[in-house]
Amino acid sequence: MPTLTVTITTPDELRLEGRLSVPVGPARGGVVVCHPHPRYGGTMSSSLVAAIWRELAARDWVALRFNFRGAGRSEGRYERGVGELKDVAAAFDLVASEAGKAPVAAVGWSFGALVALAGVVADERVGAYVGVAPPIVVSHEIDLPPLPPEERLQTWRGRALAVCGTEDPFCRPHALERWIAAIPGGRMQIFDGADHFFSEAKVELAQTVADFLGDG
After folding, report:
1. Phi, psi for 154 (deg, rounded to 5)
2. In the chain, what are the domains?
């Protein structure tokens, strides 16, 4: 599976760095993997992001991980999850062009799960979404993108999976159940004993994500 260092140009002409894996044979689909909050050290090199990306690449997806604006070597600055939507849109353009007629999907972890969801419901090309540990339970002030408008969620016709661990202080199972219920057809999976970083369950989590996306 060839891996390329790529530059993504956003609608507002910022240059973002990314890593793209392209299968040798026909692609199963194209998938964008979004990283955690850049103000708390999240980048495309975060271990869980890399694990998910590798698993998808191994299963013949055109798989892209990239740094949001202001993170790593990407141009621009952090924009509270708003400007980052333009980053996701540009990422979808890239994987869609590489995947041809194959389906497009999105995966996001933590902050990336919220940004990815907002991007997904605004793009009719995207037919599947996985939100890993969206930070929907926080005990202090933090910049987070809001849930997309209800009408957008209700009219999106893709498949959705939300995942969290029982030991995650930022994504409690009972809260996640209410959160994913806003997406028609959405379902959830709980990892017993896992924390926000899935420290002991990275491989299992990556396999779960790839299994769900491959079921479509």
Report:
1. -70, -25
2. 3-214 (3.40.50.1820)
pLDDT, the chain, mean: 94
Closest to 131 in 3D by CA, of 110, 151, 159, 157: 110
Q: 0.90 cut: is pTM over it?
A: yes
Dig out the tokens for 29 from the structure.
Answer: 């689909």
The sign of the dihedral angle between the CA atoms of 186, 187, 189, 195 is positive
Question: The dihedral of CA 97, 100, 102, 103: what is its sign?
Answer: positive
Q: Are 63 and 20 in contact (CB under 8 A)?
A: yes
Q: Stretch 146-167: mean pLDDT, rounded?
A: 89
Query: Is residue 92 within 8 Å of residue 18, measured between CB atoms?
Result: no
The torsion angles phi and psi of 93, rounded to 5 degrees, stand at -60, -45
Q: How far is CA 67 from CA 4, 32, 71, 92, in A?
A: 14, 11, 5, 14
Report residue 28 as tokens: 């199963």
Residue with tokens 């975060």: 46
Q: Which two tokens stand for residue 184?
A: 């028609």
State the amino acid at position 65 in one-letter form. Answer: R
Locate 173 and state its tokens: 């199972």
Beta bridge partners of 34: 108
- What is the tens place of the pLDDT at every residue in 80-123? 999 999 999 999 999 999 999 999 999 999 999 999 999 999 99
